[in-house]
Specification:
heterodimer; A: mainly beta; 11 strands; disordered C terminus; B: alpha/beta; Rossmann fold; 6-stranded mixed β-sheet; 4-stranded antiparallel β-sheet; 6 helices; 10 strands; globular; disordered N terminus
Chain lengths: ~150, ~230
């Protein structure tokens, strides 16, 4: 990964998301274990498998993208896989093939490519529906996602 | 006369510029839908119904929509279990040949570039194509190249849906976005005006799609000719 100038992370500005600012270019692979906001240029791959990726209005992404949720306000060129949903906002531009459970396309958005709607797989080990009398408090998540900066 | 359409194609066809008096239907009411787009009318479509009759009992088909991506069309097609490919055909047409078709649409290099941008798919790739009204804006040379390419990339026995003005004296036609409401009805949004490159009658359409297995016409009250082409 190379960057120019070095990335500034401003998690507090984007609701806790790591941010790649509009003057930053990243070439290579990005693995994120927290929400990510890209307003600069990224070439390569982006993986935020359990998190949300937002490509800001100044963002230009030429990458294969995998995330839980993708929100495009800028430009994405590359295949996008989102286990939960993809939003292509007005004035956004997405060129590539999409695989997702849900998609939202606003009027004025540009999209070129294919859309595959895939039903989310049930979580492994998810408790089966129980009779009402056996209902117990929902199990607490084993642990909150670890966030490293 | 055509009014200039500056800035018209900045967004996709989903971003309408407002209503006007060029409604495709006398009963149309200007309404405002999502994104401030002027919704002109909802109209029934026997052509669409015929198209869906062919594809709704099978899931997992590959459908090409040349009208650009709209939420309604994406949801409708994918909810049927199909894979949807989206091409903003008129936007790329404008980018390639200019708003007023300033670049010659019969230029072989440009045609090849345009086909590469819009219809660069393997042979027999699609099980259906929603062309809407986009073919009206192609001059004869480009139109024949596009139809030939469509014939190649759509599998045999598949269906294509196209709309054409039924009025053969029209100077400028409203550019429309068609959003699927139900299997037999469409929401129609006007996008401005554009001069059709050529006008068609049933005879010329039969000739245009002569290499296809069959061509079926539905003439609507809105002076729109709906055509189902079987590959």
């Amino acid at each position: 990964m190379s960057s120019m100038p070095p990335a500034r992370f401003e998690p507090e500005n984007r609701g806790g998301a790591a941010t790649i600012g509009k003057a930053v270019k990243v070439v290579g692979q990005i693995f994120s274990r927290e929400d990510l906001y890209v307003d600069g240029d990224v070439e390569g791959t982006i993986e935020a498998l359990e998190h949300k990726l937002t490509v800001g209005p100044n963002g230009t992404v030429q990458a294969t993208v995998k995330a839980r949720e993708v929100v495009a306000l800028g430009s994405i060129k590359g295949n996008v896989e989102a286990t939960d949903k993809i939003e292509i906002r007005k004035d956004a531009k997405l060129t590539g093939d999409i695989r997702t459970a849900r998609i939202i396309i606003e009027d004025g958005a540009y999209f070129k490519g294919s859309i595959d709607i895939v039903k989310p797989e049930p979580a492994k080990g998810a408790p089966k529906a129980q009779p009402a009398q056996a209902a117990a408090p929902a199990p607490v998540a084993a642990s909150a996602p670890e966030i490293k900066r | 006369m055509l009014e200039p359409l500056k800035g018209f194609f900045r967004g996709s066809r989903g971003g309408a510029q407002g209503g006007g008096s060029n409604s495709p239907s006398n009963s149309a009411k200007p309404l405002f839908g999502r994104g401030g787009a002027a919704v002109l009318s909802t109209r029934s479509s026997r052509g669409l119904e015929e198209f869906f009759t062919q594809i709704r009992d099978t899931s997992g088909l590959t459908i090409l929509d040349l009208g650009g991506a709209t939420q309604k069309n994406v949801s409708f097609i994918t909810d049927l279990g199909h894979r949807l490919y989206s091409e903003d055909f008129l936007r790329i047409l404008t980018e390639t040949f200019g708003v007023d078709d300033t670049v010659d649409q019969s230029n072989p290099g440009r045609i090849e570039y345009f086909l590469k941008q819009t219809l660069d798919y393997p042979e027999g790739h699609f099980d259906g194509v929603l062309m809407w009204d986009v073919l009206e804006y192609l001059n004869p040379v480009l139109l024949n190249a596009v139809v030939e390419r469509l014939h190649k990339i759509v599998r045999p026995k598949a269906y294509m849906l196209a709309f054409f003005q039924a009025d053969d004296k029209v100077d400028a036609a409203p550019v429309l976005t068609f959003r699927i409401e139900q299997v037999n009805s469409l929401e129609v949004v006007q996008q401005g005006l554009r001069r059709p490159a050529q006008l068609f009658n049933n005879r010329s359409l039969e000739k245009l799609f002569g290499r296809f297995e069959s061509v079926k016409f539905f003439l609507t009250r809105e002076r729109l000719r709906e055509v189902i082409i079987k590959v």
